[in-house]
Design a protein that fits this description.
Blueprint lengths: L8 H32 L25 H15 L8 H22 L10 H20 L10 E4 L3 E4 L4 H19 L5 H20 L2 H21 L8 H19 L5 H4 L1 H24 L11 H7 L4 H15 L1
Antiparallel strand pairs: 1-2
Length: about 325
């Protein structure tokens, strides 16, 4: 079946931007009943009891708002961006799988306490690893079973084939990016805003690479994320939860690999990298100092990184806007 999207890159860009606008409108339209439903179902967030005191007021705010992002992107992509572009079923499939996993975690967290709620980290990483390995295998498998990708592009140097190593690397990056966006989702508009910026960057990269389907997918994600921000604007009416953050991160990584420019992901997603690195460094340093000195010490006042700056006295909006600025410059 031939694609209903234009084959000319410039025309495809124009239509993709229009679809971003459509995703924005659709997300806003479905967002209100979703927020109302979540509120009636008492799907309220359990705030960390050891987190910043200013976050106590957020207790009870509906979570699982990532449903509106995933639903909008899946429907629009299936209607406009899969005919003649079957490769787009991969990022859509990853988006759905990660969103379902995140929704299960969010649902379980609502049944527990702020400290003990949610799926165990080990179980969540097992399922996320399964999805990531399947996605990586499809990226690497030869036609017609997959996309036949096996190379890395080194900026200013050239493209190199890495063979079977492509699969474990791709799987690790998908897992890492999903978790990094998950760590970033801690302040109103922070994760959605920085993710939208990253998707814009990869839409432009995909345009330069001639990956028209990826261009459309990325801009559809941008529109849906901006629609979500309508309800997530401070003070947030809804949070995306793991339903949104895991799905967004995994989909971003898959889109990056489909462009072939996945080595730029740590640059484009520098905010996500910093957030994840802060957690890893904090935990590692605490364990090291506890073994060496008998008492754990901390590098940051609190992690993920955005909480560190809150503890330094920055307001929530200051942290968010400054991280947005850094995300724009990185993108």
């Amino acid at each position: 079946m031939d694609s209903i999207m234009p084959v000319d890159p410039n025309q495809n860009m124009a239509v993709s931007l229009a679809l971003a606008g459509l995703a924005f409108v659709v997300t806003i339209l479905i967002g209100r009943p979703i927020v109302t439903f979540l509120r009636l179902r008492k799907a309220g967030k359990q705030v960390r009891i050891d987190g910043p005191e200013t976050h106590i007021i957020k207790t009870g705010t509906p979570t699982m708002g990532g449903i509106m992002i995933a639903a909008s992107v899946v429907v629009i992509t299936l209607i406009f961006n899969t005919a003649g572009r079957l490769s787009m079923l991969l990022p859509v499939g990853v988006l759905i799988a990660a969103a379902v996993l995140g929704a299960m975690d969010d649902r379980l967290s609502l049944l527990g306490s702020a400290r003990q709620g949610g799926m165990t980290a080990r179980l969540k990483i097992v399922w996320l690893t399964l999805f990531a390995v399947v996605a990586a295998a499809i990226l690497h498998a030869p036609f017609p079973y997959g996309l036949g990708l096996s190379s890395v592009y080194l900026p200013f140097v050239g493209r190199y084939d890495i063979g079977w190593l492509y699969v474990p690397i791709a799987a690790l990056v998908i897992i890492g990016t999903a978790n990094a966006v998950n760590f970033t989702d801690g302040l109103d508009t922070l994760a959605a805003g920085t993710a939208a910026i990253a998707f814009v960057a990869y839409a432009i990269i995909a345009y330069r690479q001639g990956q028209l389907g990826v261009v459309t997918f990325c801009f559809t994600m941008v529109g849906a994320l901006m629609g979500f921000l309508w309800y997530n604007a401070h003070p947030a009416q809804v949070f995306m939860g793991d339903t949104g953050s895991l799905a967004i991160g995994a989909a971003l990584a898959v889109a990056a690999f489909m462009t072939g420019q996945w080595l730029l992901l740590p640059v484009v997603g520098a905010v996500f990298l910093a957030e994840a690195a802060s957690v890893v460094l904090q935990v590692s340093y605490f364990k090291f100092t506890k073994r060496r000195y008998g008492e754990g010490r901390r590098l940051f006042k609190m992690t993920p990184l955005h909480h560190h700056f809150e503890m330094l006295g920055w307001s929530e909006t200051q942290v968010t806007m400054r991280f947005w600025i850094l995300g724009m410059m990185a993108g």
